[in-house]
């Protein structure tokens, strides 16, 4: 069911400093910042050969990463995202096996314009896990 | 400087339960467990199309993930590993720009038999970051 690793998301308190670190110190290819007010984040993509890292900074008052950064102010690993070909089939299989989908259980449109859902981290050993239909 | 994402490592308290979840619920291809006593972990590889997830369970008395699981007993995202072509050149560039290498600063032989080093998570916004020479 799981396809490619679409991305790993890292929450950072200061995107400018993070960009400088990934671009200048680690020598990575880094995108321009992209504000996604409807998702409550500003994102920068660190483009690797086989996948990408998403650096997330809170945007606005109801950012979904605000609570995470309140707990871990220096930042940290926030979630992983796997690709699936049929997100509703994936959801049904997961729910049948006792995994919980966050929210009302219906896919929403994610930051890449594709259907996504998030699985409860307690059902995946503490790792917040996103599925994205591609 | 950064090449491919080699792996994402997730610490889990119970590898048997984690294998069942990733294989049976998420439908992923999962390796047999591999005990690495010299690294203090037992590892299972979740093979994705473009990279892999490493599920880590502590092994022995001085496991490098024991403290992490003591803080976060349900498990969680532990580190990311990027490939580099010349780990000493990477190290020198990092140190020159103020990033700290854990240990004595010299690469060690990692779980895949290749030279590795770890960067201090405080210098990468809370993300423990491994570099592996390939």
UniProtKB/TrEMBL annotation, chains A, B:
EC no. given is 5.1.99.1
Keywords in UniProt for this one? Isomerase, Metal-binding
Pfam families with a match to the protein in the record? Glyoxalase_4 (PF13669)
What Gene3D superfamilies does its record include? Answer: 2,3-Dihydroxybiphenyl 1,2-Dioxygenase, domain 1
Output the InterPro entries linked to this UniProt entry: Glyas_Bleomycin-R_OHBP_Dase (IPR029068), MeMalonyl-CoA_epimerase (IPR017515), MMCE/EMCE_epimerase (IPR051785), VOC_core (IPR037523)
Keyword RNA-binding included in the entry's annotation:
no
Q: Where is the VOC domain?
A: 4-134
Q: Name one GO molecular function term.
A: methylmalonyl-CoA epimerase activity
**What family is reported?**
Belongs to the methylmalonyl-CoA epimerase family.
PANTHER family to which the protein is assigned, alphabetical:
METHYLMALONYL-COA EPIMERASE, METHYLMALONYL-COA EPIMERASE, MITOCHONDRIAL
Q: What is this protein called?
A: Methylmalonyl-CoA epimerase
Q: Which source organism does the UniProt entry give?
A: Fulvimarina uroteuthidis
């Amino acid at each position: 069911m799981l396809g490619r690793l679409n991305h790993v998301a890292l929450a950072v308190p200061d995107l400018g400093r993070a960009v400088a670190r990934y671009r200048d110190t680690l020598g990575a290819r880094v995108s321009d910042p992209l504000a996604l007010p409807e998702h409550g984040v500003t994102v920068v993509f660190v483009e690797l050969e086989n996948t990408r890292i998403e650096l997330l900074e809170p945007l606005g008052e109801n950012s979904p990463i605000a609570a995470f950064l309140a707990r871990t102010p220096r930042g940290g690993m926030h979630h992983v995202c796997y690709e699936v070909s049929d997100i509703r089939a994936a959801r049904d299989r997961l729910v049948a096996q006792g995994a919980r989908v966050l929210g009302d259980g219906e896919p929403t449109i994610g930051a890449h314009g594709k259907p996504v859902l998030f699985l409860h981290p307690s059902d995946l050993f503490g790792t917040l896990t996103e599925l994205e239909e591609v």
